[in-house]
Design goal:
binds 3,4-dihydroxyphenylalanine, alpha+beta
Amino acid sequence: MFESVPLEPFTPLPVAICPVMANISDIEKVKNDISTYNLDTEEAVEAFRLTYLSRKGIITELLAGIGKAEPQDRARLGKELNALKQLAKTRFDEAKAALSAGKTADITATDDPTLPPPPFPAGSTHPLSQTLEEIKNIFYRLGFTIADGPEMEDDFHNFTALNFPPEHPARDMQDTFFIRKDEEDPSRDLVLRTHTSPVQIRLMKEQKPPVRAIMPGRVYRNESITAKSYCLFHQVEGLYVDKNVNLADLKHTLITFAGHLFGKNLKYRIRPSFFPFTEPSLEMDIWWETGNRPGQWMEILGAGMVHPNVLKSVDIDPEVWTGFAFGMGVERITMSRYEIDDIRLLYDNDVRFLNQFP
Ligand code: DAH
């Protein structure tokens, strides 16, 4: 139940508390003055500050008078005056802010189209995109077109058509992100593509030879994330199918490419290798020396002559047509060019890192 509480008896302020103030009704008057003070102009705000907030202002004077008040009234008086001071400060701060906002608004609201635009910090191209652009440019000049394919692939394009035997370890759960896994019928599996090679298959199904294209894109591997490996990365696939394409053409293309990307003094080696979709297969390493690091061989790509089974899987007659293919990792090349020692930096989008690649 609500009970009415008797109000404390009202005690008028003693006259002696300060020279300016006679009683509480005067505090009320100052409060009213502060609340209604017109603060439209810079000059008015400054006058307000001098009147109420400066060392010689009314509130300072009132506060100084507290000591002269009756001891039992001092606390209450102090409270009243502090509230008054706070009110004056708030009005002052708000008026200042409003004035400066108005100024900015005036400048930006101008209709003068000849004024320069407000400064806008320029971003920079991501180091991976920079490398990718250069790779694309080089192959463009070598007469390659650009193709792409989906990042979610079926078993046929990612594995079977590329001559992966059914029990090949790359189909294992450890490397592949499965979107759909069908234990009884693996041909129904859907995966995040583990490489860009399936785009070769799509391209050859769409376009009969001659075909000469590169296929850049993202690929995914179910590997643990470390400084050296990430669950996604980028590859650039290459394919050239025509009559009489041979290993010398492949070697010439790769050496020309690497020379453009890494410079004239390029030192490289080509080693035999194995991929199910090429025969023979090879890998290309370049000798890489930067800054204060000792030089070392770095593998930049895998390649080979397209396996006859791959051509057959897309109804291209391997007796008539031959081709070469290659695939390279964009992260690995980018990391060595810029001496980046942790692949995760490429995916953090930390501007302190990105700003270093103007
Ligand atoms: N797909 C291979 C990989 O991801 C790279 C590769 C090697 C692509 C040889 C090719 C090739 O086209 O001929 O490791």
